[in-house]
Amino acid sequence: MNTINVDPAEIAKFGRLAGRWWDPDGESRPLHDLNPVRLAYIAERTTLRGARALDVGCGGGILSESLARAGAEVTAIDLSPEVIEVARLHLLESALTVDYRLLGVEALAAESPATFDLVSCMEMLEHVPDPRSVVEACARLLRPGGCLFVSTLNRTPAAFAAAILGAEHVLRLLPRGTHHYAQFIRPSEMAAHLRAAGLELQYLAGIAYNPFTRGARLTERVSVNYIACAVKPA
Ligand code: SAH
């Protein structure tokens, strides 16, 4: 439980992007464009005002700040010192409060189990050596009745075409090597991780993203990017 579940090369890669994290036209552009959809998805399924929220693999804090703006009391963790620094600095601009911590999710679960009303873990599991351990730690951090929200990329030819060929090689939206196909997660595998962690999968939806219009919306097609909500039984 206390072994560190992290790929240092992945952390270094995100550290290099930290300085431009809040530039909506920089490498985090897809995260900025997806954010309203995932925030709405969360807000429709749980009460944010006054909720204790945890954002796992928070990066520069795009979702963490949105959760705080919606009235949640937010803790956010990441293992990249550079992104945590940028996230903290951005609070000076946004005048919001988020408790950013440089900490792994397994360590936080050992420290504060059954603490949070909701946990989000967005676009992070596909960068971790053992995603199941992250899901289990997220589950431990939830209070009974709390919700886990996860999003990631499916392991399909369509996801390879969109997220690797399209985004990294053709459009150059993301640096090459941002994603590794083998680490993409099928919804059936995600469902198995959630089940193993004692969570009940409630909703799964695809997120369609058009990099040209920069529009994002929920869709039934889960072949590329998808988001899910799972509840810890009361
Ligand atoms: N969740 C944010 C950022 C996604 S980018 C958003 O969707 O806006 C992926 C983030 O996961 C990066 O900030 C990276 O540093 C972090 N990350 C990768 N492996 C991690 C690990 N093992 N533990 C914690 N954070 C990790």
Gist?
With 234 residues, the protein is of the alpha/beta class. It has helices spanning 8-17, 29-45, 62-69, 81-94, 105-111, 131-141, 157-170, 187-196; strands spanning 52-56, 73-78, 98-102, 116-122, 142-153, 200-210, 215-219, 225-231. β4, α6 (131-141) and β5 (142-153) form a beta-alpha-beta unit.
**Strand share of the residues?**
15-25%
Please estimate the helix content. 25-40%
Mean pLDDT: 96
- Low-pLDDT parts are none
Chemical compounds bound to the protein: S-adenosyl-L-homocysteine
Outline type: globular
What structural category characterises the helix and strand content? alpha/beta
Ends distance: 24 Å
How many β-strand runs? 8
Question: What string, H for helix and E for strand, traces the elements in order?
Answer: HHEHEHEHEHEHHEEE
Number of helices: 8
Major beta sheet, specifics? 8 strands, mixed
Strand order of the largest sheet: 3-2-1-4-5-8-6-7
**What Rg do the Cα atoms give?**
16 Å
Topology summary:
Layout: H1 8-17, H2 29-45, E1 52-56, H3 62-69, E2 73-78, H4 81-94, E3 98-102, H5 105-111, E4 116-122, H6 131-141, E5 142-153, H7 157-170, H8 187-196, E6 200-210, E7 215-219, E8 225-231
Parallel strand pairs: 1-2, 1-4, 2-3, 4-5
Antiparallel strand pairs: 5-8, 6-7, 6-8
Bound molecules: S-adenosyl-L-homocysteine.
S-adenosyl-L-homocysteine binds next to α1 and α3.
